[in-house]
């Protein structure tokens, strides 16, 4: 199958390109190749490439940034989807698009199914929901995949941020110790413990996409790594697995951070539909994290 992949240089797009290239003819485009906010650009790209499917992995994902740049947020996450879906409808081309757990408000007490009521609590979630609505209205043949808490090698993510902070604290501590300026003591990090979700490795998500494409899946499907945790629990596991277990992670409340955007307290997505369609189960988030750390040699060397 001939696939046009938009956002192929991003964190998810990179892994999609690597995984799907083994089975399909992939043509990747990024922001230097196409302005997806331009309806003319979208129509021209689809005309030039003549794909069987368009995968949109492009998005504006700065959750706090969306609160201060509503125009860009909705242009990329909603209007661009409208352009892509409209152009594909004219040519009867299948569309695969990605959305987020942040379309939900976090008041549930069990994992969200695909038909659960959407009620975003921030502009990022609202913009992604607007994109979903455009896709569902304009496309006759679409697959909408919602996922959560993504991390991967080709972009900024929570895992790398925690490791960067750990390395910085170790450098400061070691420098002070060598100078005999302070007695050795454990470093600390502060991470929120009142938001729960499912960390998802983009390499695993890309594999899941390959399975869904093989099954010609349509509609909305939730896909995350199995299991759930708080951001605090995730940070503790990251540090322990990477060899920084001596660093103390202090649990704090979201309100203490005073961030511009609210986050849902509970955003676990049910994978039941994915399992029913593919017969596959996503690996637990703990094993996915180990794979990520091992694949890219992110564990601390003890030599």
Unreliable segments of 5+ consecutive residues? 178-183
| N-to-C series of helices and strands | EHEHEHHEHEEHEEEHEEHEHHH
For the record, what CATH class of the domain at 2-155 and 200-226 and 268-283 applies? Answer: Alpha Beta
Rg over alpha carbons? 20 Å
The CATH homology group name of the domain at 2-155 and 200-226 and 268-283: NAD(P)-binding Rossmann-like Domain
Report, as a whole number of angstroms, the end-to-end distance: 47 Å
Write the layout of secondary structure elements.
Elements: E1 2-6, H1 11-20, E2 25-29, H2 39-49, E3 53-56, H3 63-68, H4 70-91, E4 94-100, H5 123-138, E5 142-147, E6 150-151, H6 158-178, E7 188-192, E8 196-197, E9 200-201, H7 202-214, E10 219-222, E11 229-230, H8 231-242, E12 248-252, H9 254-257, H10 272-278, H11 285-295
Parallel strand pairs: 1-2, 1-3, 3-4, 4-5, 5-10, 6-9, 7-12
Antiparallel strand pairs: 8-11
Helix pairs in contact: 1-7, 2-4, 4-5, 6-8, 8-11
